[in-house]
Amino acid sequence: LRLALYLGSLHVASGSTFLYHDYCIIGAGPSGLQAAYFLQRAGRDYVVFERSHAPGSFFALYPRHRKLISINKRYTGKSNSEFNLRHDWNSLLSHDSRLLFRRYSRDFFPDADTMVRYLEDFASLLKLRVQYNTAIVHVMLERDRQAWNGHYFLLTDQDRQNYKCSCLLVATGMWVPNVVNFPGSEYVEGYETVSINPDDFAGQTVLILGRGNSAFETAENILGVTNFIHMVSRSRVRLSWATHYVGDLRAINNGLLDTYQLKSLDGLLEGDLEDLAIVKDKKGKLHITLRFYLENRNTSAGIDSITLPQDELDNFATRAPYDRVIRCLGWKFDFSIYNRSLRLMTGKGNKRKYPQIKPSYESRGTRGLFVIGTASHSVDFRKSAGGFIHGFRYTTRAVHRLLENRHHGVPWPSTVYPITQLTNSIIKRVNEASGLYQMFSVLADIILLRENATAFEYLEEYPVGVLAELEMQTGRKAPNGLFVVIMEYGRNFSGADKDVFYYNRAVGEAQHAWQSNFLHPVIYYYKRLPTEHEMRLRPPDWPLPRPDAVHHIVEDFLTDWTAPNAHILPLRRFLENCLSTDLRNFFAESCFLFAFTRQKLPPFCQQGYVRMQGLVGSEKLRRHAIEAGLLEDYTLTDFLGDRPPDSHEGSQDHLLRDHAMPVRPLQHLVTAKDE
């Protein structure tokens, strides 16, 4: 029967006219606009479908009380735009500096209406191709061997207009409210419709179902006018500062925790919502009972005939009746518009509200269908920031780069450097890269070594979950080993039950860097690319399989990993041990000596001094190095002996020393003995 229905739908579709685009994006929220920006910059054929009359329709309604919990840090003390994005959680990525969120709001926690205005400007100023008032109501597949992925995606809107595309990007987010059905659930008000006027709750007692930011946001709004507020959920409260997950309860909304712990009537309870039942009395009051009390009973007979928990346990916690019960249980993905032919499946366990996708953000059931934005959060749920703008702006860029390689033969962007720049390149990235910082444990920089470790190729912000597929996904080869640069928290530091403020919680010595708790860089070294089998068998909570060598750069209170002794020197020695080479920088004087005393010159001398690279020496530069203790003070007579100063040989030696000696730039002056 399913096959017949599927073939019948194909037959109907075959008689329709389809508007074709290479890429179709469903949803003009932040992730949809971000994907559109990258496709437009690459000159690709795409269209964005948006059911509303403007982009970002979710933010036109949510959060209900209009204050975002994504920070807008306008000042960091730095002018580096990449670094500043580490602390700007609202801006999308673009080349236009006008489209930085700090130009739209001065508030640390901005108003949601400002986000709507920002997204409207992002779409209009960049001239993104968004088709508004177009609600996609059905999506199915059409098999075709000539298509990019062996099939086309057929989309139908509310006006029965049909579209065809080779690649589908789903950016609809999570907007279907989570609803728990139990006896009496018809008396429950939803977060999406409940009043936001505190006066409507004056003198009332309120029960809130849920334990997330929407629940606490609702409580915060009415905290000062209610008799008391109770909050019930199946799980304990999880504080974001303890879990290091921005989706958990944020401090801006946790006023109820104060009034609960300081015994000011409000309270938190744990229990399975599906076991609850609500009974309404003649006065309109709502009584909480348990489902099993109502089994085989006629609830319409009235509350007097129903056993309540307090009838058997007179100190039952929720024995007091409530005036209102509010549901604040978050949202889930809308699967209703996708035909069975797409095999878009729900996640498992606590990820069932998300669609199942691979670490590459591609559907597990259908090639060419990618889920981006909030709905892609199953990849890093409760681990990183992939469900929020400051995370998925980078994962969306990663998806675009994967598509560029797969469909257009454009390899993942990379830069090739001589091996002497390896330490500097890593230090630069860990100190300023925003993608590594926000998508910790998910996106990583990949360093591909060239033959004989004379050079390396640097790839930025690649999804580590598909590291085994790197050569296929990026178009880059890794025959000589690789380094993976990633950011991580300490293994046992994060959790709802963790005390993250304990004494001696931070590590300061380089030799104890592996015990660092706070976010810090970790460098993995592999002699060969890990296999898919090794990725599946990696240790629990490890983002990567066990490496041939690993190095932790010790955590830093200022997140500034530039200390010569604590950060740079241990990193350089780790890299040297992995590569069996000397990565120090030398003066021309040392390179000249090595040329006569060693069989093999260090890479810096091979790639610099031998090729006549470096600054031309001068007496002023030499004197500065001597005064700094970086060079020995060889006088002219040390070389001339008893010869007269104006002899031909002495003049030639003086000329070589003062005018032709290649030396390092002053900002990198370090001698062999100092390093």
Distance between the termini: 75 Å
Instruction: Provide the CATH top-level class of the largest domain.
Output: Alpha Beta
Mean pLDDT: 88
Number of domains: 4
Strand content: 15-25%
Instruction: Extract low-pLDDT stretches.
Output: 4-14, 645-675
Query: How many runs of DSSP E, i.e. beta strands?
Result: 24
Rounded radius of gyration (Å)? 31 Å
Approximate shape: globular
Summarize the main sheet: 7 strands, mixed
CATH architecture annotation of the largest domain: 3-Layer(bba) Sandwich
TL;DR?
The protein is of the alpha/beta class and 675 residues long.
List the helices and strands and how they pair.
Elements: H1 2-14, E1 18-26, H2 30-41, E2 46-49, H3 57-61, H4 81-84, H5 112-125, E3 130-131, E4 136-143, E5 151-157, E6 162-170, E7 176-177, E8 189-190, E9 205-209, H6 213-222, E10 228-233, H7 240-243, H8 255-261, E11 267-270, E12 276-280, E13 286-290, H9 291-294, H10 309-312, E14 324-327, E15 331-332, E16 369-371, H11 389-408, E17 414-418, H12 422-432, H13 434-438, E18 443-449, E19 455-463, H14 470-474, E20 482-488, E21 520-526, H15 532-536, E22 549-552, H16 564-579, H17 588-597, H18 603-609, E23 615-616, H19 619-627, H20 636-640, H21 648-659, E24 662-663
Parallel strand pairs: 1-2, 1-6, 2-3, 6-16, 8-14, 9-10, 9-14, 10-11
Antiparallel strand pairs: 4-5, 5-6, 7-15, 12-13, 17-19, 18-19, 18-20, 20-21, 21-22, 23-24
Keywords: Endoplasmic reticulum, FAD, Flavoprotein, Glycoprotein, Oxidoreductase, Signal
GO cellular component, one term: endoplasmic reticulum lumen
Protein name: FAD-dependent oxidoreductase domain-containing protein 2
